[in-house]
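Components:
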Amino acid sequence: MRVITIKDISKKCGVSPATVSKALNGYGDISEATRELIQKTAQEMHYLPNAAARQLKTNTSHNIGIVYVDQTGSGLAHEYFSGVIDSAKEEAEKSGYDITFISSSIGYGSYVEHCRYRKCDGVLIVSDDFMSRQVQELVNSEIPTVIIDYIFDGHSSVLSKNVDGSYALTKYLIGKGHRKIAFIHGETTSVTSKRLSGFYNACSEEGIKIPEDYMIEARYHDPSASAEATRKLMMLRTPPTAIMYPDDYSYLGGMMELERLNLSIPEDVSVVGFDGIHLSQVLRPKLTTYYQDAPKIGKISAKKLIHTIEHKKTSVAEELEIPGKLLIGGSVAQI
Amino acid sequence: MRVITIKDISKKCGVSPATVSKALNGYGDISEATRELIQKTAQEMHYLPNAAARQLKTNTSHNIGIVYVDQTGSGLAHEYFSGVIDSAKEEAEKSGYDITFISSSIGYGSYVEHCRYRKCDGVLIVSDDFMSRQVQELVNSEIPTVIIDYIFDGHSSVLSKNVDGSYALTKYLIGKGHRKIAFIHGETTSVTSKRLSGFYNACSEEGIKIPEDYMIEARYHDPSASAEATRKLMMLRTPPTAIMYPDDYSYLGGMMELERLNLSIPEDVSVVGFDGIHLSQVLRPKLTTYYQDAPKIGKISAKKLIHTIEHKKTSVAEELEIPGKLLIGGSVAQI
DNA sequence: CGATAGTTCGAAACCGATTTAGAATAAAAG
DNA sequence: CTTTTATTCTAAATCGGTTTCGAACTATCG
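Structure:
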């Protein structure tokens, strides 16, 4: 049998299509009796609204785009981002929104155009590269956006309590007796500057002065960049006794490099990460790191985005900070 | 300014909307001159077709659904599945297909209904649970499907060369002198039976008889199931010298359990996994495992699905086997 | 009882494209 | 110069809903 449309129901019920539409969409000017009849009939006939028709007329798709750009090319394999996306998806679905990936812009001029073509009601931006023209253009477009792990003025962001996280890690290291602490930090972004200030706060509280060559920039999620930074650090006249990595994934590069240099963790050098992905907890020694609550971040950002979509006028931009947790492993030695 | 429609272009060019549509879609009955004019104008005006309108009329969405069910609840965090999905996405986008997640059926009766509502031209099924009614229903629907890691009669599947993989692993163990090999294998599925036959082939070639209690079923991607199985195995009067795990992720459970039992790898017991996810290669010792070419699997399945969609009548169901690779780590001892 | 208000419903326009069937014109043939 | 054929274009229907505005009817009120 053909696909059931609103017209089929209207015939069966002896009412007009307009009435059916209203009955199904909870309009007030339909009597209880006909509403029930129509709903029952729709059920019986396995009626399924036509998303395209609805979208065409209402100009909303109940679709959320996810822009996920991963410069390092490891795809969805980043556990942290995967976690965020996955839980955002779940949350969105609860409100009847589906997820469409806007990762690529092939065939369209840009992300914005891709979103417009698919009429995404809103977009979640999870990216490694917020500086790209395409992302900028998207953020400045008419499409509601929520941004993960980055701050754009006048837009809502969701991120971890980065200051706290990095502060906690630093404090922990200091508590273990470390004074010569190196920080391999990510490229300059709003997140990085927060982590830096957490770091400096902790240091200055303890009266510790960090030499300049202990601070090295290395791209997030890029093990080889962190490997190189690690090498540089350990080559210094006075190498650090502890290294903070931009993230757990990057730490893998450091780990390998230390292996190559025949240095063992934590005997020769202590390390901490950031993210608390599953991976970090199965390494030996277990990595001491700051857990970012990816599920919560995803959930909150979906909620915020949907709220923004559905209350365009009243909704205001917010910067939402989600608490994480210090995970203590065995990667830091007492000295 | 408003969104540009085909009508705006038609006005500007002094032709009918019909002509514009045809010019833009490569119909033959349009003169070169007008076609060029129209295309240029469309460019200039930043025309973007309305996906909904097109979909409504043509009844195709250029949208591919991905059903990803993850019973274990770890979401997209499974690196293998993430890899498959990610590369399928990339491939699909090359052909102008977008990806919509059909993971949930909340708000719809079922996956099929969800797909029908969004008018997915086809569906990629990546699941932990192919026995579920919903998946069955979807596979038996009118919607073209390609299935990852499972075989449904009359449908296309893409999977690794499981027989070879498990054969290679077993052979490797035997080559290292192992005779007492236990196999913690996944639940009964087409994939599992292939892996079992690869295993038995290798064993019988070498004249090795595996006792029944060396064969334990444990759910795929369930570390705790594998942990329990590991415990059982090591409690046997004559425990195995080597254990094969259903997959790398499950191995983590085994790893922890062996740690708890104070057994070291590979000195006390040798282990191998299956999947070759990144994780397995940063563990120490590095896990010996069979790498499944997730990117290739994703790519091929997207290709096959799109081909099926675009050549419904001529396309035939295929079972595509993608070769993987034995990754030799340090988790197997010579005895 | 006529006027007014309130309920319930339907006609019709509309969203933006695609596509069929045929019109108009030009070119070729007789 | 008429007829045929090819070429290029358009009118109009259509996809399946939503929504406005008014019609029809019933109930309420003075």
